[in-house]
C-alpha cells in the first residue's frame, strides 16, 4: 500500500537518496559516489562504517547482497522489476558492494539506468533478521511476503509505535546512526509521526 511504502521509507534506507529537484543520487548508507567500470556493466560502492542497524550492529555489504538474493528467491516486486536488468549483487568485503548488470548479446548492460536506479529505489534489509523471518515462515514465499514483521530490525530514524485500523504512529529511535557527525549530526525533530487512515481517497 502507499501507506506502507511511506513508512518503509523512514524505517529502512537505500544506499543512495534520489533528489527529484536535481535528478542526482546522494549517499545515505553508501560512503561517497558509486563508480561504473569502463564497460558500464558493473557498479561498485562502499558503505559508511557509521551506518548501524537498530540492534547496534553495522550495516554491511552482505546485508545488501542478501537483500537482493531475497528479492529473487521470494519473487518480490523489487525482484521481479529488476531481475531482467541486474544479474548479481555481491559483497566484496564488509563494506564494498558490486552490482553486476545483465548483459545483452553485444555484451552491454541491458539498461544501465535501471541498474543505478536500484541503488536509490530499494531499501537494504538486515541479513540476520531476514534469516530469522525465513526460519519463522519455513521459507514459504506467500508467508514470507505476508509477515507483519513486528520484530524487524531497521536502519532508519523511526519505527512503529502504534497501529490500528484508524491510524499508524511511528516513534523516533533516539539511537539513530544519522546523528553521527559524518551525517546530519542530530536526530530528526519530530518525536512521533502519525498517519490517519481513510477508507478511500475521497
Keywords for this entry:
3-stranded antiparallel β-sheet; 9 strands; alpha+beta; globular; 4-stranded antiparallel β-sheet; 202 residues; 22% strand
What does this structure look like?
28% of the residues lie in helices and 22% in strands. It has helices at 2-11, 61-73, 77-82, 112-121, 127-137, 141-146, and strands at residues 16-19, 24-27, 35-36, 42-46, 86-91, 96-101, 158-163, 167-172, 192-196. A 4-stranded antiparallel β-sheet has the order 3-4-6-5. The protein has a 3-stranded antiparallel β-sheet with strand order 7-8-9, with helices on one face. The mean pLDDT is 93.
Blueprint of the fold:
Layout: H1 2-11, E1 16-19, E2 24-27, E3 35-36, E4 42-46, H2 61-73, H3 77-82, E5 86-91, E6 96-101, H4 112-121, H5 127-137, H6 141-146, E7 158-163, E8 167-172, E9 192-196
Strand order of the largest sheet: 3-4-6-5
Query: Could you tell me the mean pLDDT?
Result: 93
Tally of strands: 9
H and E string = HEEEEHHEEHHHEEE
The first-to-last residue Cα distance is 17 Å
Structural class: alpha+beta
Radius of gyration of CA atoms, rounded to a whole number: 18 Å
What characterizes the major β-sheet? 4 strands, antiparallel
Strand content: 15-25%
> Helix amount, in percent?
25-40%
Q: What shape does the CA trace take?
A: globular
Contiguous low-pLDDT stretches (5 residues minimum) are none
Number of helices: 6
